[in-house]
Amino acid sequence: MKVVFESCDIARDYRKATNARVKKTLIIFSAVFLLLGGASLVAGIIKENESLINLGATLLIFIAVYILLMLLLIKFAAKRQIKTNKMAFGGSMRAVFEDDVFYTFTENEMCKDTTESKYEGIYRVFEFKEVVTVMTSNMTAFMLNKNNVTEGSFDEFRDAMRQRIGVKYKLRTKI
């Protein structure tokens, strides 16, 4: 087995993955508070209860402010992380997964790095809709865009990882 991931723009892949997670949270949280606020407002109007009307209006104002703040977060959070951590996000990355070991090659304007690791050293792997996060410890990870497979196939990668690391491979979305 040999599967190769290549990314010419690590920053773009990171920003895309971060934005997808934040947007999902935003949609769920907003829907819950819109329902609560709307239900309280309607119930207050029907029962002519001023405290329910105030509660509903407060919840709706809160959710409007929350949505605006989250949209600003989506716009600036990933950009700031990338700007302040050029070593991690600048340049390109290549990950090669072979039978016994996997390699990562990272190159940017500040450094050139190559690592060789055994599969037993993998802490966890999380598969999302568009990316896979390979954690080499609880504090270190790298993201691989599923569309950036240049040699082999992603299904081959998934099957090999499940076979090698077992329950450490976590699926975070339905395929």
The total of helices stands at 4
Given helix and strand content, the structural type is: alpha+beta
Radius of gyration: 22 Å
What name does CATH use for the topology of the largest domain? PH-domain like
Order of helices and strands: EHHHEEEEEEEHE
Largest β sheet strand count, sense and barrel closure? 5 strands, antiparallel
Q: Low-confidence runs (pLDDT<50, min 5 residues)?
A: none
CATH class of the largest domain reads Mainly Beta
Tell me what the structure shows.
Helix content is 51%, strand content 26%. The chain is of the alpha+beta class and 175 residues long. It has a five-stranded antiparallel β-sheet with strand order 4-3-2-1-8, with helices on one face. The chain is built from four helices and nine strands; from the N terminus they run βαααβββββββαβ. The protein is elongated. Helix 1 runs antiparallel to helix 2 (50-84). The relative contact order is 0.17. The longest helix is centred in the N-terminal third of the chain and has 38 residues, at 10-47. It has two domains: 3-8 and 90-171, PH-domain like (Roll); 10-86. A hairpin with a 5-residue loop joins strand 6 and strand 7.
